């Protein structure tokens, strides 16, 4: 069926569209998945390409860079891993930092898992592997609108995953051609990226006290016990601050309506 | 660089997958969680990333410190991409000026 017929049916005879929809569920799920993901792809390309270049510049081989993106598939934590590898900190603290940065996914999977009734266990296992931030956001809204089915989820995921890897590959190939990363500020892109991420959380409850305590304790640890304890201790201090300042059943209302 | 980079990458991948399945397998079994626990979970990315970036602010030169401040301010209003880009441009310009 051509796009044109489909569109005109949607407008003129909505009842028939429903019937058509149930028959061509899979086709329209795939089409919607690709439509919803398209704007996201433009945002992913630069981060993926820069990751490739920075990973190569930090001493990872091309194969290791691709393996990172293929197996971890979580931009922020991959940047963290690269950054810490360059600082020569013990392996356990790198894995712990990656775990901590990815901790938000625990909340995502708890929430999206409830809408995956149409998924087989194997499909669920694969779906959770692909659960990146935009995937979560779009799947939640899809689930609320018309139910979440595997065809939509995996069409959306396949587009991000393949774009992510392709842009990564290009970045890694061209990254090795950059002779003086210092002149382009490439050596400092990781702290800038982390700063941008942190500032993006500024609407969360008690953002300023958490930020201030985490940063202060981190610096204290950095200059006394040394790396990598600044991440662990600074992080834990921030969590304690957030827990201590939390008030029951307040400030969560906005998020709950957004999820509903 | 670590001796066993591939193993380290795979361990990080496993840790990531654990977070992506963990919520469904563990957290969804408990009904409601305590508000303090929820607040702490919500604060994880802010706390960890702030702790990670704090030393970069003071252990480098003025060009680096200022570019971090710029990236942070831009990210309050605009996209992450624009924030990183502003930080980089500021850094390149300052390094060139102060060199």
The H-and-E topology of chain A, N to C, reads as HHHHHHHHHHHHHH
Strand proportion of chain B: under 5%
User: What is the structural class of chain B?
Assistant: mainly alpha
Structural class by SSE content of chain A: mainly alpha
Helix content of chain A: over 70%
Number of domains of chain B: 2
Largest two-chain interface: A-B, 99 and 70 residues
Radius of gyration of chain A: 22 Å
Low-pLDDT segments of chain A = 1-17, 251-260
Roughly what is the average pLDDT of chain A, rounded to an integer?
84
Describe the protein:
The complex is a heterodimer of chains A (260) and B (99). Chain A folds into 2 domains: 24-198, no CATH class; 201-260, no CATH class. Chain A is built from 14 helices and no strands. Chain A has helices at 3-12, 14-23, 25-57, 62-71, 75-86, 91-101, 104-112, 121-129, 133-146, 150-175, 189-200, 207-223, 229-245, 253-259. In chain A, helix 4 packs antiparallel against helix 10 (150-175). Helices cover 82% and strands 0% of the residues of chain B. In chain B, helix 3 packs antiparallel against helix 4 (80-98). Chain B has 2 domains: 1-31; 44-98, no CATH class. Chain B has helices at 5-25, 35-59, 62-77, 80-98. At the A-B interface, helix 3, helix 4, helix 5, helix 6 and helix 7 of A face helix 1, helix 2, helix 3 and helix 4 of B.
């Amino acid at each position: 069926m051509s796009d044109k017929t489909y569109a005109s049916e949607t407008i003129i005879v909505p009842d028939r569209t429903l019937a058509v929809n149930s028959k061509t569920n899979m086709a329209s799920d795939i089409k919607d998945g690709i439509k919803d993901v398209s704007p996201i792809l433009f945002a992913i390309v630069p981060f993926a390409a820069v990751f490739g270049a920075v990973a190569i510049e930090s001493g990872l081989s091309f194969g290791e860079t691709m393996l990172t993106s293929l197996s971890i598939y979580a931009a922020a934590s991959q940047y963290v891993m690269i950054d810490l590898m360059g600082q020569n900190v013990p392996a356990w603290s790198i894995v712990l930092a990656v775990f901590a940065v990815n901790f938000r996914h625990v909340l995502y999977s708890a929430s999206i898992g409830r809408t995956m009734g149409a998924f087989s266990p194997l499909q669920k296992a694969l779906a959770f592997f692909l659960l990146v931030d935009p995937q979560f956001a779009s799947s939640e809204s899809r689930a609320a609108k018309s139910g979440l089915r595997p065809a939509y989820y995996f069409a959306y995921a396949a587009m991000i995953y393949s774009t992510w890897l392709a842009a990564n590959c290009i970045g890694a190939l061209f990254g090795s051609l950059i002779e003086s990363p210092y002149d382009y500020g490439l050596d400092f892109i990781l702290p800038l990226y982390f700063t941008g991420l942190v500032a993006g959380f500024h609407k969360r409850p008690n953002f300023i006290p958490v930020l201030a305590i985490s940063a202060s304790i981190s610096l204290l640890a950095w200059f006394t016990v040394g790396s990598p304890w600044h991440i662990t201790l600074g992080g834990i201090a921030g969590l304690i601050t957030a827990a201590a300042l939390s008030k029951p059943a307040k400030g969560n209302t906005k998020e709950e309506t957004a999820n509903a | 660089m670590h001796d066993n980079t591939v193993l380290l990458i795979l361990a990080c991948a496993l840790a990531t997958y654990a977070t992506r399945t963990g919520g469904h397998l563990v957290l969804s079994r408990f009904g409601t969680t305590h508000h303090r626990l929820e607040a702490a979970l919500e604060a994880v990315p802010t706390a960890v990333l702030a702790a990670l970036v704090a030393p970069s602010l003071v252990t480098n030169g003025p060009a680096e410190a200022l570019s971090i401040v710029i990236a942070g301010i831009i990210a309050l209003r605009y996209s992450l991409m624009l924030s990183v880009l502003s930080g980089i441009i500021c850094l390149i310009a300052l390094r060139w000026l102060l060199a």
